[in-house]
Amino acid sequence: MPDEYVKVLFKLEKEDEDYPPVDYERLWARPLGDGLFALDNIPFFVRGISVGDVVAAQPGEGEVVFSELVRESGSSTLRVIVFDESHVEEVRRQLQTLGCSTELNVSKMLGVDVPPQVALQAVRTWLMEMQSAGALEFEDACLRHDGLD
User: Fold this and answer.
1) Which pairs count as long-range contacts for 52-58, CB under 8 Å and 24+ apart, including other chains?
2) CB within 8 Å of 63: residues ≥ 6 apart
3) Model-level pTM?
4) Structural domain of 36
5) For FRET with 86, which of 25, 33, 60, 63 sits at 20 to 30 Å CA-CA?
6) In whole angstroms, what is the distance from residue 36 CA to residue 54 CA?
7) Has residue 89 been placed in a domain?
């Protein structure tokens, strides 16, 4: 199994005229052979995909292009916009305390990975409290935890 990483290209569907603000997202992945790749970073705009998912991708126009999800990792992905940039690191620390990892996209946007062993409802409850307080906004990008309503 090769240890070099590649970027897998995902074509994004526009949800409205301004979002997402890009047409494509590239996610780092480990080649597994036979056109399969294990994703290794948190998506900011791709929906229905999480860290650790195994995807099939095909070479195309000098890039490796996503074709289908092969195996789910069990992780869920959330997106968070922190309204006050000075609070971003505090939000990241709290999410880490809850068992999540985060990646920062521009100054106030976080991709959040909620691993399968972490209580998703506890993370969402904290985020809802912060959202009600006007500190941030969040959305579910890929929910994979068992027991979701």
Assistant:
1) 55/8, 55/29, 57/8, 57/9, 57/29
2) 7, 9, 26
3) 0.88
4) 6-71
5) 25
6) 7
7) yes
